[in-house]
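ZP: hey, is the calcium ion complex queued? I don't see it on the tracker
AM: it wasn't, my bad. submitting now with these inputs:
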Amino acid sequence: MKKLISLLLIIVLLISAFCSCAQQYSDPTAKIKTLKSDDKYRNFYEIFVGSFNDSNNDGVGDINGIIEKLDYLNDGNPKTDNDLGIDGIWLTPIMPSDSYHKYDVRNYFAIDEQFGTMKDFDNLVKQCHERGIKLIIDMVLNHSSNTHPLFESACEQALKGDLDHDAKYYEIARYDTDPGDAYTAIGNGYYYESNFSPHMPEWNIFERRTRKYFAKIADFWLNGHSVDGFRLDATKYYNCHHGDGKEFLKWYYGECKKLKPDVYVVGENWTGNSEICEMYSSGTDSFFAFGFADSTGGFVNAVRNHNGVGLISSVAKFEKNSKRENENRINCYFLSNHDQKRSANYLKTVGIKGTKMAAALYMLMPGNPYIYYGEEIGLSQNASADDDEYKREPMIWDKNNLPDIIVNGKTSAEESQAPFGGVKQQEKNEKSLLSFYKRIIKIKNQNPEIARGEIFEIKTGDNEIVEYYTEYKGSKIYVIHNLNDSEEKNVRLPEKLRLRGDLVASNTKEIDKHPAVSEKALILPPYSTAVLKK
Ligand code: CA
């Protein structure tokens, strides 16, 4: 009996000790409703289709492979916490093509057989929509494949001196002297423009019949197959000697809007901020913010140098200048994409904690962030090689069971590419990079002002503090980051605020200290982020 009483006493003591611990920290996100987006503001995920997930074990990722992983991206229930919470997907090209990357399209009205069938694709769209995910596909309109039937007949006709029929679809002309590297010879003095490769002849996008053809393609996908929009490839090459790329974009966006009033279009204009702002005058919803991306971009620099000075003022300037061109613009911040070195390779120097801070910085910007598949688990690439294939290596779902995908016969997954583990290893670890991404997206979905608001910098005089607010429909959300990896910071708040979300970039060995607010002061632990509201 005595034994039983002391055992009961121990249990009571343990329970009360546990409760007092739990009382010290109460998760600010626990009682806030997570909302589903019903507009164009989304957390996007880029999938390089051939490298994501292979459903039939033929060594190439495919559409059914994506369907298998939809629950990982978003199970459709905003109340659950075990999915990533993605509500926008961008698929790299899926149409029949002779290359592994499929940016040279042979037929704009079908699915490449390596990836599956149109039935598989329709199923993917349906399942995305059931989960509240918008699906956009890559639309390559700058060039086609040199095996596209229209290009083949254009060349045949040009060789006979006929430039008035199918040759008009492409940038084909006769030159007395070789026009240079951006052109490829057909014969008899005729050349076609081919900025990327001889396999990629450029469409004449200023020709009436080309546009009619492009409108038919848009209708096929938007209405025939219910896609939500397009990612437009290589828009900076739309400009040419006889036409203005902005004029083409304005026409194309207008056509898409006519076909589907809530269409979402994002352009790849791989240039500096001012050229991107100019492109916004076309009315296009979004452009990728290349000026802030990559190993030298503002987010990575801020983490690497523990110095956020200038980051928010340059974002705010870009936001303002782009808005001047398009009132409804949605900028797209990101770290890397399929044409750039994997961010995990250069974030290695800042470790998992710095990688988490980089994620918090770009994901909490206004607009639509784009996560390149694998970035959420810190997937790195074979560092010894530079070819594009290495930027597109297979997703690692389970570090102990590597996929059999081989990218263009060149490279496959290695265990060393998942230093923080694969998806399976990270899913059950609440301190993994994957769990950190999930929490960022959850906080964003609880506070729609972050994505939709206008951004305003708050200068603190401390290089290691990044502080701003975004204002949407009269409601302000404050975001404050501490870029110091060892020192706690005391931040004076501009008004009395409540915590709405907190992110602590710790590793598994550390006991988390959480941001705390009292009156108008915020205590911000090392490498942490606070999201606050009145
Ligand atoms: Ca396959």
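AM: back. Confidence is low (pLDDT under 50) at residues 16-23.
ZP: great, adding it to the tracker
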